[in-house]
Amino acid sequence: TSLFQSAPSAPLDPIMRLFEAFHQETRPDKINLVVGVYTDAQGRVPVLRAVQEAERAWIDQARPKQYRPIEGTAGFRSGVQRLLFGENTAVLQAKRAATLQSVGGTGALKIGADVLKQLLPDAIVAVSDPSWENHRALFEAAGFTVRSYPYYDATRQDVRADAMLDALRGLPRGSIVVLHACCHNPTGNDLDPAQWRAVVDACVQGGLVPFVDMAYQGFGDGLEEDALAARLFAEAGVDFLVASSFSKSFSLYGERIGALTLVSSDPGTIGRAEALAKRLVRTNYSNPPTHGAAIVEAVLQTPALYDAWTEELAGMRHRIHDMRTRLVQALDAQDLGRGFSAITRQKGMFSYSGLTPTQAEALRARHGIYALDTGRICVAALNPGNLPRVVDAIADVVR
Ligand code: PMP
C-alpha cells in the first residue's frame, strides 16, 4: 500500500470548496459571490493603471531575475511602513518596526504565527466569532490552541463590543488576539474608533499580544482611516504584529504579495525579532518572489503612481458602497418582510446578508448564484448588470 494511504482526509474549507464548485458550474449566467475578489462595473478583475505603468517600467528595465533579500527590498519595506503608520511617525523614528515581504497576507499570518510559536509556545490564540475560515486553521496548523471571542450579534446585525471586551479581559496574559483592522471578514461590521481605543486598552492592560490582520486597507473608510488600529497599538508602545495584504488593494491576487510587520515595545529587540522571522522564511521558501513586490514598491515610492493608485482605490471603495446602497434599495422594494439596511452600514467586500444555509443552498441550486452558507456575500462582485438577477434570486429564496 502507498505511504499516502494513511494521509488524514483534509477537506477544503467552505470558501475553497464552493470556489471549486463554482468553476464546475455549467450554467453560463452563474454568479460568484463567494470569494473576496473585487470586480469592476463590467464584472472584470481590474488591472489598476498604476500597476500597469509600474509593470511596463519594470519590463523595460529588463532587470536580471536575481534572488531577492529574504526580507524584501528596502524600498518595499519602507513603503509598507509608511502606508501602515504614516510618514515619519514616532514608531518608525524609534526604529521599533521591522517589515518583511510575505507571500500574500496569508504568508504574513503564517510567518507571524511561527514567530509567535517560538516565543509563546503555550499561548492561546483568540479569533473573532465569526472570522475568516483560514484564521483558525492557520493558527492551529502553527501549533496553537485557538479560541474565539464574541464579535457579531446576528439579531442586531452589529458588533458586540462589550462582550468582546469582556472576553479579551478574561484571556490569560500573553494570549494572542487576532484582530481585523477594517472590513471585517465575513460580517463587514467594524469597530468604531472609540471601540478600537477600548480594545487597545484591554490588550495593553491584559498583557495580550495583538496580531492585526489588514487585508483590506483602503476599502473601509480610506487608507489612513483603515490603519487606525495599527496606529493606536503603535502609540500604545506594545509588542504587536501586522499582516498586510496587497491582494485586494492593488488587485494583485495571484501575485501573492503582502507583508509582515513586527513592532517591538523596545527598539533594542527589533533586530532579534526580524532575525527570527528571516530564519523562518529561509527554512520555508528561502526568499520571496519578485514581481508583485516590485510593482507595489514602485507604486508606493513614485508620487505620480501613488496618486493614481489612491484615486483608483477610492473608486473601488465608492463603487462597492454604491452597490450596497442599490442592493438594499432593490431588496427593500421587494417587501420581503425584513429590512436590509444593515448592509449599507457594513464596510469592505463582504456582507452578512442574513441568508440562512438553506436559502444559500437554494440560491446555488435554483439560480446558479454562489454564496457561503453563512450568508456571507461578496458585495464587490455585484455590478449594475448582475444586480437585478441577484436581487430577484434572493427574493425568490427568502419568500
Ligand atoms: N485575512 C483576511 C481577513 C482575508 O480576508 C484574506 C483574504 N481573503 C487574507 C487575510 C489573505 O489575503 P491574501 O490573499 O493576500 O493571502
UniProtKB/TrEMBL annotation:
Record flagged with keyword Transferase: yes
Domain Aminotransferase class I/classII large: 29-394
Gene Ontology biological-process entries: L-phenylalanine biosynthetic process from chorismate via phenylpyruvate
EC number: 2.6.1.-
Organism: Orrella dioscoreae
Cofactor(s) listed in the protein's UniProt record: pyridoxal 5'-phosphate
Pfam families per record: Aminotran_1_2
Subunit architecture: Homodimer.
Signal peptide feature range: none
Transmembrane segments: none
GO cellular component: cytosol
Recorded family membership: Belongs to the class-I pyridoxal-phosphate-dependent aminotransferase family.
Matches recorded under InterPro entries: Aminotransferase_I/II_large, Asp_trans, NHTrfase_class1_PyrdxlP-BS, PyrdxlP-dep_Trfase, PyrdxlP-dep_Trfase_major, PyrdxlP-dep_Trfase_small
Alphabetical UniProt keywords: Aminotransferase, Pyridoxal phosphate, Transferase
Protein name, entry field: Aminotransferase
Gene Ontology molecular function: identical protein binding; L-tyrosine-2-oxoglutarate transaminase activity; pyridoxal phosphate binding
SUPFAM superfamilies according to UniProt: PLP-dependent transferases
